[in-house]
Design goal:
mainly alpha; 54% helix; extended; 22 helices
Length: 532
């Protein structure tokens, strides 16, 4: 029986990976396919959009073998892709399993709260919150997981569960790929775990775009923690004094290489081989001299006592010249440009992966509605996030969803009715436009039939057709007049908009109280412009 205890999962990608011959790779993939189809695909847990569904009690019903199989593929996803990678495009079309594993992006464990069940769970089920003790946590801490969305809505989670998840994330060496996290509808999640959660989001979940905390047990205290989170991430003072970012800048000192390259382009000279203040630049120049066999010319003090070294380098130069690779200023400048490009890429990767960086978080949508304990104090604190500019004013994707004030029920009802009527008029206006266009097309067809030289058509038929055409024309005019009336009402509603009684007039427009509409039309994390 195939067992997933291969030694390769304990080693990093590199030389050890190349030790796997083609036959071993094939055996690994065949075993994995059998595992996937037996415990995941055949059990209808996988959906074509890359989602593994354990929702609606699916986690509680799943066997330990199924859970271990799911954990295996999500934990080692990146390594498995390297094993399955086809050699050509033709092989890629035939290797459907490679595409399946590559597209595993969403784990849905929503609605697994057994505390809401009236009957006792069966013997082979488990507590809904006990998943934090399984290999589930290893998925969060795995450097090879490429999970983008984690749905834990209504799972009976507690503060302790959230803290355990955060502890798993904090064992990472780089930021998680996760972009959407839902902890919503877990009433036992309170303010007590929010400090740990947002510290983890800042340091290890830098790619998180959307965090859902609606219908939990949080209060105004969490709003203050969210404000501190954004201030620590994006305030100019904190960004300016970010020691980690400064250290990365020092390690990838691209400016010195760019200045030296500019000097060479200006003077067309590479005479300054030594005495550079930057040690990395000095070492790079030495490596260039070694590559072109000119150490004996520019670094004679580095040559060994062997007098034949200079003779050997001269011979090596002739070989390079024979292959059109002779030393020149252009060759050195090309080497500098490649070095600069490589350093830029490495610096971007370091900034992308390194934990604890400021201005690294991409969190721009928070769902805090249906939390009755968040009051006007919390709303004003959240509004300060926009007021202070921690979320850029031109970032249209940024949004914080709240309940708003619910003081005057009559005014709120009147506002909701006004919104509904306005939306209905807009829909009716667009629908009538479609009807008018169809009627115009029918009238045009009838007129063409009337003027056509069809001798077989009787006078009675022509009279009937003319009557229908006049009737359609009359109905079209009525609909056009109706559209004019609706247009006037729509424009009047836009000009004299009612203010939302749940909102303070001074709030930023991205502090949303019409969250029901956002819920229906929100942007999927996979469609954000800055998606990883």
């Amino acid at each position: 029986k195939y067992r997933h205890t291969l030694w390769l999962y304990a080693c990093d990608l590199g030389d050890e990976r190349q030790a796997l011959d083609e036959e071993t790779r094939t055996l690994v993939q065949c075993g994995d396919e059998q595992l996937f189809y037996t415990h995941i695909m055949d059990e209808q847990l996988y959906k074509e959009n890359g989602t593994i569904h354990l929702c609606n009690g699916g986690f509680l019903r799943a066997s330990s073998l199924q859970l271990r199989a799911i954990s295996y593929f999500l934990m080692f996803q990146h390594k498995l892709q390297h094993i399955y990678t086809p050699h050509s495009v033709d092989d890629l079309e035939e290797n459907s399993f490679f595409l399946v594993v590559t597209n595993l992006t969403h784990l849905n464990i929503a609605n697994n709260d057994d505390t809401r069940r009236s009957s006792k769970p069966e013997a082979d089920t488990r507590s809904s919150s006990s998943f934090v003790g399984l290999s589930f946590l290893r998925i969060l801490s795995s450097e090879f997981s490429q999970l983008l969305a984690l749905e834990l809505t209504q799972c009976g989670l507690t503060d302790s569960d959230v803290e355990q998840m955060c502890s798993a994330w904090c064992t990472r060496q780089s930021h998680s790929s996760l972009q959407s996290l839902s902890l919503a509808e877990n009433a036992c999640i309170t303010d007590d775990c929010m400090a740990v959660l947002f510290t983890t989001v800042a340091n290890y979940l830098g790619n998180l775009l959307c965090l859902m905390l609606h219908e939990t047990g949080i209060t105004d205290k969490t709003c203050e923690l969210i404000f501190k989170f954004y201030k620590a991430q994006f305030s100019s003072k904190m960004v300016k004094h970010d020691a980690i970012a400064k250290d990365i800048d020092r390690r990838y000192n691209i400016e010195n290489f760019e200045r030296e390259l500019q000097r060479m382009k200006t003077t067309q000279s590479t005479l300054k081989w030594q005495h550079h203040k930057d040690e990395e630049l000095e070492q790079f120049m030495l490596e260039i001299a070694d590559d072109f066999g000119v150490i004996h010319e520019y670094y004679p003090h580095r040559m060994d006592a062997n007098s034949a070294d200079a003779t050997w380098e001269q011979c090596y130069q002739k070989i390079l010249q024979r292959h059109n690779l002779a030393f020149s200023a252009e060759m050195v400048m090309d080497a500098f440009e490649r070095k600069i490009q490589c350093m830029r890429y490495e610096k971007e990767q370091a900034l992308e992966r390194t934990p604890f960086l400021k201005k690294r978080s991409k969190l721009k949508q928070l769902r805090l509605h249906l939390n009755a304990s968040i009051t006007g104090v919390g709303f004003n604190v959240l509004n300060d996030i926009f007021k202070k500019g921690y979320l850029h004013k031109k970032d249209a994707a940024a949004a914080i969803l709240i309940d708003g004030y619910v003081e005057d029920v009559h005014a709120m009802h009147h506002y909701q009715q006004w919104l509904a009527e306005t939306a209905q008029r807009q829909r009716e206006f667009e629908s009538l436009g479609e009807v008018v266009r169809r009627m115009e097309h029918n009238i045009k067809d009838m007129k063409e039939k009337l003027v056509s030289a069809d001798k077989k058509r009787s006078s009675e038929q022509k009279t009937s057709l003319s009557a229908k055409c006049r009737h359609l024309q009359s109905e079209k005019e009525k609909l056009i007049n109706k559209r004019f009336e609706l247009h006037d009402l729509i424009e009047t509603a836009k000009t004299n908009q009612l203010s939302d009684p749940k909102r303070d007039r001074n709030w930023d427009k991205r502090l949303l109280t019409t969250w029901s509409n956002v819920w229906d039309n929100w942007t999927d994390p996979m469609e954000y412009e800055n998606v990883i």
